[in-house]
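Holo model, S-adenosylmethionine. Inputs:
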Amino acid sequence: MTQSFIHIESPNYLRAGELASPADWPALFGNDHPLALEIGCGIGDFIVKTAADHPGQNFIAIDFYNKGCYKTCRRIDAAGLPNVRVLREEARQFIVERIPKGSLSAVYINCPDPWPKKKHRKRRLVNRQFVEFLAQYMAPEGDFYFATDFDDYGIDVAGMMTAVAGFENRLAPDLYRHELAGYHLSKYMRKFMAEGKRIYFIHYRKA
Ligand SMILES: C[S@@+](CC[C@H](N)C(=O)[O-])C[C@H]1O[C@@H](n2cnc3c(N)ncnc32)[C@H](O)[C@@H]1O
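Output:
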């Protein structure tokens, strides 16, 4: 069954093809506040709460799921938030084409697809290669947040991050925690917690 494509009419929805490479984010937001990125925003519940908490930051929320972008825009528009823009984009391509190097003050990745089968693990978004790639686009002291319910993914990323040069573990001496004060829960986090699963939260800062 094919899902129908929803046309998104929102002042906060941007089409990457219409932007410069890299995009002029201060012009798009109308200010030069620090720029944060959520990869895989889903229905936007996390970014709406996070952006409301941080009016002095700009947030880009991306997902390659059309309906998720639509729902995220609906939430942002209803909340009247001026500091979020949404794009239906694949993370790696979007970052390379639209994000200036050294510009991201924070990156959030919540419950990325876990690809549980061993033979599919190489499809996971977050691995050492991806974090080293991402690091080029992060500002000094930029925060990297990762959360998953999937034990094996959480433990893998926690272990891998200790080997990536130029990042400091903000949860030391813990490699991960199952609760992170002040960090909003996403739809998937709540769903997994309702099933009795624990979330692995990881927080590193670019040195
Ligand atoms: C399991 S859902 C989690 C959604 C949300 N972060 C949450 O925690 O409720 C993963 C989301 O990431 C998106 N996604 C996965 N890989 C992506 C990629 N490479 N670029 C953009 N979005 C991606 C999927 O479309 C999906 O909406």
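The first strand starts at residue 35 and ends at 39. Residues 66-79 form the longest helix (14 residues).
Archived with the compound record.
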